[in-house]
Specification:
two-stranded antiparallel sheet, mainly alpha, 16 helices, three-stranded antiparallel beta sheet
Amino acid sequence: MTSRIRHPLTAVAVTTLLTLPWVGIYATDSVDALGNVGTVAISGLSVLAASFLLAWGAETAEKDVPRAFAIAVLAVLAVAPEYAVDALYAWQAGQGRAGAGDLAVANMTGANRILIGLGWSGIALFSIYRAKTSGDVAVEHNDGFLNDAVLLDRSIATEVFFLALATLWAFFVPLNGGIDALDMLILVGIYVVYIGIVIRGDPDEEEAHVGVPAYLQKTPAFVRIPSVLALFGYSGFLILTAVEPFAIGLEHIGVDYGIPEFFMIQWVAPLASESPELIVTAYLVNKARTTAAFNALISSKLNQWTLLIGTLGIVFSISQGAYGVLEFNQKQAAEIWITAAQSFFALAILINFRISMREAVALLVLFVSQVLIEYLHIQGVVEFISTYDLLIAYTALYMVVGSAMFLARMDDVRTVGRIARANATGNQPAVDSD
């Protein structure tokens, strides 16, 4: 029987083979010959394969670096497509394309809201569903309607704390009419300090792995470390080259079916560029690694909410050849406010280190309903409220409910602050026992 078990590297070989059609097309610069449907199919398959290579690399890296740092690297690579797409619009704004700054903000806010509205809620619901057969200890089963919950490791307190800082600052970004140097310094600075803290931790060796990561972790360091770098490098190359054509192909297909281009740029393109992150976290949940999945999601949100916003102004300034503020209109200001408010509400949910089915459904319903009403307004079906007023109304709803939850969970707020301070100073155990 044992001889029939496939070698773990067989999975790597098969997954790599799935990427070769895209590599060949990219190398010969023949994307245009595929058409929209062909481009979406082949580049999408490559993105799917890259997501698995990326996940294997991150899990293997936990042998040599702190898990939080490995997951932070995974999060950066997984959302790299979003950086690429958004940087394109910021660059075009610097070149004088009218409305490109608005598109950059629309794409960025859409990506951030998708990550929470679909990502956090969807992975929580999937985790609870999978726990019925996987026996995932991170899922708590309770009596009552939608009362099952995902329990999160208290080590995420550091990510929650820094995400809270970035979220609070984001409310002030629109006040100057654009993204400026101060926004860049604050937001990028938040992420740099965060990385400086998590990289100091110790490698986490107690979590058991299976399959490809288990095999690679048993190899000597001179084999393991280059393997991790190769997995990160190749998956990063695939994501950076394949996701933009994938997103653009989807946009064109949507336009062919009468969906407005602006709506596609805000929602469909970010959904495509977020797909590696969602696939990776679903993969981790499927292996009963819900804690690692949520760590990756929260880390992704943190780097998108800091680096993505902060670097748009840099790209814009480089493009126009001089320092400038990436300006946007009143509607995009409202888009930033609702995105910050959704983040505020999501943090109120996670502040007690758990997310119930009820809370996950609330995140999902609020996100989907707002996008649906906006789409119906664009189509002329809903006329009783303007898009701007709709965004402000949802912002207020997120803030009111989130504030009430924070007030009811002040003990948890203090716990998060205490654990985050301990992780930063190294003077106490990283995880509190209360």
